[in-house]
């Protein structure tokens, strides 16, 4: 049985930090002389207690940017920068411990640093606090706190917070179910290009939840998400073509979009392909496979409304 899918709350870590082996003695990497002089000057300012210089020197060590990477020393300098009032350093410290970048993952330490960062109204740190309480990362799951931090982050422009908060209203988790509120929040994120939110806005139009039902609008938002490689959007767009919902029934396009969704690990789509195949002629199937082979390597897919 083919089904349309709603999205889920996203467990998305905003800053992905690469982990490489530590070096105990950070030294300047091989760079042109003028670059080395700039780095020496930066380090000297950091050693004199300049919070901004300490922050940027810590980032250099963290990323191996012009110097040999050393996460341990990076943490030391970021802590010094935080203690001297830099508003950005504590968020990076939270990221390091949340992701386990050169150190063991420690959600409690991440929480501590994100809370310090949140005092500066940093939207990414506020979102991460919401995420930690939403999923119970190193703490007891607490949706009231998750909603509090998501709300603060969303008010400061976090698209991820808007999506996750919208999904809590959609599901009625931690708050009374409210489709209109969910739609409003999700539309904010969708309008700024977040594919997961675009899929969910499409679903709300599809089902007429919190907004007047419209297959035309549903297809528009599914297509936006699908063109960004979102599996849910691709799956639901395929379903519309398979059932002829607001569009002429088209088994070839249904097959292609289900195949793209399956490529993005949508389980429902993997089963749907076989059902669609059973209704296709050999000519249609050949055409569908050819299109899938062509489209799968195009990211974004950039297909217009005629597709």
TrEMBL record:
Q: Does the keyword Signal apply?
A: yes
Q: Which SUPFAM superfamilies match?
A: HCP-like (SSF81901)
Q: Where is the signal peptide?
A: 1-29
Record keywords: Repeat included? Answer: no
The record's keywords, sorted A to Z, are:
Signal
Q: Which domain of life is it from?
A: Bacteria
Q: Looking at the Swiss-Prot or TrEMBL record, what is one Pfam family this protein matches?
A: Sel1
Spell out the protein name for this chain: Beta-lactamase
Record organism: Dethiosulfatarculus sandiegensis
Phylogenetic lineage = Bacteria, Pseudomonadati, Thermodesulfobacteriota, Desulfarculia, Desulfarculales
């Amino acid at each position: 049985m083919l089904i349309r899918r709603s999205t889920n709350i996203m467990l998305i870590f905003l800053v992905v930090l690469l982990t490489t082996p530590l070096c105990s003695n950070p030294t300047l990497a091989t760079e042109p002389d003028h670059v080395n002089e700039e780095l020496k000057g930066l380090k000297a300012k950091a050693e004199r207690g300049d919070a901004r210089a300490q922050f940027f020197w810590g980032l250099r060590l963290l990323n191996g940017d012009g110097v040999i990477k050393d996460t341990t020393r990076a943490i030391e300098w970021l802590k010094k920068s935080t203690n001297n009032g830099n508003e950005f350093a504590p968020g990076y410290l939270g990221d390091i411990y949340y992701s386990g970048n050169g150190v063991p993952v420690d959600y409690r330490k991440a929480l501590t640093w994100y809370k310090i960062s949140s005092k500066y109204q940093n939207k990414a740190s506020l979102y991460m606090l919401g995420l930690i309480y939403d999923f119970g990362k190193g703490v007891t799951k607490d949706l009231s706190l998750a909603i509090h931090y998501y709300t603060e982050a969303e008010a400061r422009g976090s698209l991820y917070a808007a999506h996750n908060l919208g999904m809590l209203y959609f599901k009625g988790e931690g708050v009374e179910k409210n489709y209109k509120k969910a739609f409003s929040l999700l539309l904010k994120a969708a309008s700024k290009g977040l594919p997961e939110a675009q899929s969910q806005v499409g679903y709300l139009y599809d089902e007429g939840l919190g907004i007047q039902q419209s297959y035309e609008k549903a297809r528009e938002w599914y297509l936006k998400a699908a063109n960004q490689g979102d599996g849910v959007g691709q799956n639901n767009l395929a379903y519309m073509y398979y059932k002829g919902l607001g569009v002429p029934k088209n088994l070839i396009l249904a097959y292609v979009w289900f195949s793209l969704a399956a490529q993005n690990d949508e389980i429902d789509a993997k089963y749907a392909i076989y059902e669609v195949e059973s209704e296709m002629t050999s000519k249609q199937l050949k055409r569908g496979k050819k299109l899938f082979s062509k489209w799968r390597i195009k990211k974004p897919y950039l297909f217009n409304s005629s597709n």
